[in-house]
Design goal:
With 177 residues, the protein is of the alpha/beta class. Helices cover 25% and strands 28% of the residues.
């Protein structure tokens, strides 16, 4: 097996990611002062992004996680979203920020937003590290976006292909996955 770093074309450097995370944290702080938000990370892809983001936000907040499946071992979504792990915290009458690694087709984010809205939060916004705007099947409004990207399969910084590449400190593209 080749070194994963040798197989990946770098799209977003570690420094670019860190700079944008600082900006996103400032935006969230400004919008959520005195609101005690709950950040809900979508596992497993968003865990690195969310951990780095939470450490930069300097207001009180809580975190929880959902785990969903829509890709399996494929490069394309199945179109069917399954919740594999649900929230442990109640979100009724709370301000919620859904934290995604990537909005690809929008199917998963749209499903999760509708599911969370049904639980009665005071508000809900979406924060995503990446969004493939040209690939959207469902229009999803991303309130806090790290970077728009082209329709390429990306890995690194928590994003994976078949469980590999999550450890990379940058976002890159693999063509032959």
């Amino acid at each position: 097996m080749l070194n994963p770093r040798e197989e990946v074309e770098v799209l977003l450097t570690e420094q670019e990611l860190q700079t944008r995370l600082n900006e996103l944290a400032e935006e969230i702080e400004a919008d959520y002062r005195d609101k005690d938000p709950i950040l809900i990370g979508v596992l497993q892809g968003a865990f690195v992004f969310m951990a780095d983001l939470v450490r930069r936000i300097r207001i009180p907040l809580m975190v929880d996680f959902l785990r969903v499946s829509s890709y399996g071992q494929s490069l394309v979504t199945s179109g069917e979203v399954k919740i594999l792990l649900d929230l442990t915290l109640p979100i009724a009458k709370r301000h919620v920020i859904l934290v995604e690694d990537i909005i690809d087709t929008g199917i998963t984010a749209d499903y999760l937003k509708a599911n969370l809205i049904s639980r009665g939060p005071e508000s809900i916004k979406i924060c995503s590290l990446l969004q493939k705007k040209d690939n959207l099947v469902r229009m999803v409004s991303v309130d806090y976006l790290g970077f728009p990207i082209e329709n390429r399969f990306v890995v690194g910084y928590g994003l994976d292909y078949a469980g590999r590449y999550r450890e990379l400190p940058y976002v890159g593209c693999i063509e032959d996955a």
